[in-house]
Every structure is written in C-alpha cells, then in structure tokens.
Design a protein that fits this description.
With 306 residues, the protein is mostly helical. Helix content is 75%, strand content 1%. It is found in: Membrane.
Length: 306
C-alpha cells in the first residue's frame, strides 16, 4: 500500500480479486458448515444433561464451540459481502478485523481455562471442587466474554473516531487500514498489548499445564488413547495459533503473496474445526451420551475409542 488519500493503490493483486474472494468464501463457508455439524451434537448433549453442565470443562467446551461457530459465521458473512461487492470498505474491514481478533482472544482464554481445569482436576482432585466452585465457574465464563466485549467496544470506538475516510479496498488486512487512521499508534499499541497477553500469558500457561501433566502421568501416556489425545491437542493448538501469529507479526513481509494469505486462513479454519474433535468427541463421557442418541443403540453396545 502506498497511501490512504485515494491517489495510491490500497493493495496489490497477485490473484484476481474476484477469484481471491471466492476462494476465501468457499474455505470459510465449508469450515463453518463442518464445524456447525460437529458442534451441534456436543452442544445438545451438554445443554440437555445436568450432570455434564455442572462440570467446568464441559461448560468451557460449550462456550468454546459457540465462540468458534460465531467466528466462522462472521467470516462467512464478511467474505460473502466482499465477494458480492467485489471489494470491502475500510470501516467494514476494520470492524471485521477487530471482532475476529477478539473472538480469537475468547478462544485462547477458554482453551487456557480448559488446560488449567484439567491440570487441577488431575493433580489436585480433592481440592478441585473447592477451587472451582459453582460461583467461580460462572465468574470465569462471564469474565472471558465481558473482557472480549469490552476490548472490542473500546477498540471500535477509539479507532472509528480516528478513521479519516471510508474508501473501498480489495484486500482486508490490519496494516492496510492502519495508515488511514489519524493516529495509527493507538491501533499498533492495542495490537501489541493483546498479542503480549496471548503470547506471554495464555500460551505459556497452556504449555506449562501440558508439560506438568505429561510429567505427572508418564505411565498413563503409555496408552494409545492418551497419546492420540495429546497429539491432537498439540496439533489443534499449532494449527490455530501459528496462522494467528503469522497474521499478526509476519503478514507485512508476505503482502505480495495471495497464496500465502489463502493458506493461512485454511490452516486457521482447520484449527477451529479440530476443537470439537479434540475436546469433545475424545471424551468418554460425551461419547456415551452421544451414543445414547442413536436410535439403534443398546445398553450392551459401547462406543469404541482408540
């Protein structure tokens, strides 16, 4: 991008805009549909069974699934609009970026809470109910959503007041719209602050819980099921986090690569779609509840898990 006064190009064009937006729309809409089909059975059994609702990990899982589906739905609506118009306005682009980024915050925070919950449940089972009482469970969920909503509203209010114009652009990225703000330092500071929380706080906490559990349950990890679950959790975290970090820190260096941009969103959506598989369908308790929903299921038949 050269400038934001209408005299320079607001992006490049390695792939034709119509094809570029069509590819992104297909990837996001398919991911949204797949994730919705995977999430609905899990949300149904969680909301219909009081014995499951009282456990923090399943409450976190339900909120995680809702967050993921909302994020993919947001992307589908955004790319559908862009494909129909063949461009995106600066304001719409900025709102999409901020809302998507804060959905990522919710995702990472719930994943972190999930990791801490499992760590405490395994290491200190007798103190678990004391640490995570009913009131604290509700507080954790409400705090994550309220924090994300607050950050979103503050970022939108501050930045939209400093947006100098609303012109159509062919690509939607943070570093494209930043020069169009009267004070781009605010946006960069917000981005740095949130990124520091994600990196230094959440990811290190998840890694610490993972290493602590791996050390404490070394004998348990000899089973095939444990290794499959662990590998899936690591892959999901990598598929979700790597594109996010690349999009935050390295996208400026890849701005001439439409194919890289498409690859990033494909891997990112894959990381989202793995959430119900990793944290939901690997649960023996949820497997049993899901199996009971099948019309031909019998009490003598049990689901097979590897």
């Amino acid at each position: 991008m050269e400038n934001c006064n209408g005299t320079g190009s607001l992006w490049y064009e390695q792939i034709k805009t119509e094809l570029f937006l069509k590819i992104k729309l297909v990837i996001t809409s398919v991911s949204c549909l797949v994730n919705l089909l995977l999430s609905l059975p899990l949300l149904f059994v969680i909301t219909r069974n009081p014995s499951v609702q009282c456990k923090l990990r399943y409450v976190l899982l339900a909120n995680l699934l809702i967050c993921d589906n909302m994020q993919l739905l947001l992307g589908t609506v955004h790319f559908s609009t862009c494909f129909y118009l063949r461009h995106c306005y600066l304001i719409n682009c900025f709102m999409f970026i901020i809302m998507s980024f804060n959905f990522c915050i919710v995702e990472v925070f719930f994943t972190t809470a999930f990791s801490v919950d499992r760590c405490i449940a395994i290491k200190w089972p007798l103190q678990y109910e004391t640490i995570f009482s009913s009131g604290r469970k509700k507080t954790i969920v409400a705090a994550v959503w309220l924090l994300a909503i607050l950050l979103t509203l503050v970022a939108l209010f501050v930045a939209l007041n400093k947006l100098t114009m609303n012109v159509p652009i062919e690509r939607c990225h943070l570093f494209i719209i930043a020069p169009c703000l009267s004070d781009s330092g605010i946006l960069e500071g917000y981005n740095t602050f949130i990124s520091a929380i994600l990196l230094l706080g959440s990811y290190l906490c998840i890694l610490g819980c993972l290493l602590l559990l791996c050390w404490d349950i070394r004998l348990f990890l000899k089973t095939r099921r444990a290794w499959v679950t662990l590998v899936m959790q690591v892959l999901q975290l990598i598929f979700y986090s790597a594109p996010l970090l690349v999009d935050i820190f390295l996208i400026k260096n890849l701005k001439d690569k439409d194919d890289t941009d498409i690859t990033i969103i494909a891997i990112f959506n894959l990381g989202i779609s793995l959430v119900p598989l990793v944290y939901g369908y690997r649960s023996v308790e949820l497997q049993g509840l899901l199996w009971k929903l099948l019309p031909l299921s019998r009490n003598t038949i049990q689901p097979i898990s590897c």
